[in-house]
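User: Quick sanity check before I run a bigger batch. Here is a single chain. Can you write out its predicted 3D structure?
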Amino acid sequence: MAYYPKNKIKTNLTTDGKEYLLVSTLTSYSGFYYKLYNGEAYTGKFPGDGENELLTPIIQGITQPSPQSLTTTSLPPLYPTEKDYKNGMFTRYFSKKRNEYLFEELTKDQYDALNNPKNVMFTLYQPFFIKWMLTGEAQTVADFNFYSIKNAEEKEKVLGLNEFLKMNYLQYYKR
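Assistant: Done. Predicted structure follows.
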């Protein structure tokens, strides 16, 4: 259980079910909750009060997604263009479900929409991107892409990205 100074946490708050959803099930939550300095809210009167689950605010006017709509088949993959091959690299956009090891590759538009803190999905999914080398000597390209993945895993705390990409460091590679 983490320790939070009194000025970094508000405890013993209550909600009637009209303010928050449980992130794990996308159902409304009523009962005690606490809120951290960064805006995150969790179930329970305080940290360590039972199983503290992450909550996300209900935003009026936005339809809540169903868990079935969040499959990997719902998002098309992004492929490099000829311009990207001329530049030798491109940016790949991803999201990771915050409470699971579920990754999805996004288009730039999907990334931009998801990266908006007002979007309900922002609290459910962590958007991030990596630079991906396309051309050059095969070993150099593989090394660059390997370190790009490793850097994202550490910096963005998205462990499992390497496995999601099947350790294919030469994906989209052209000589």
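The chain has two domains: 6-57, 69-164.

User: Great, the batch can go ahead then.
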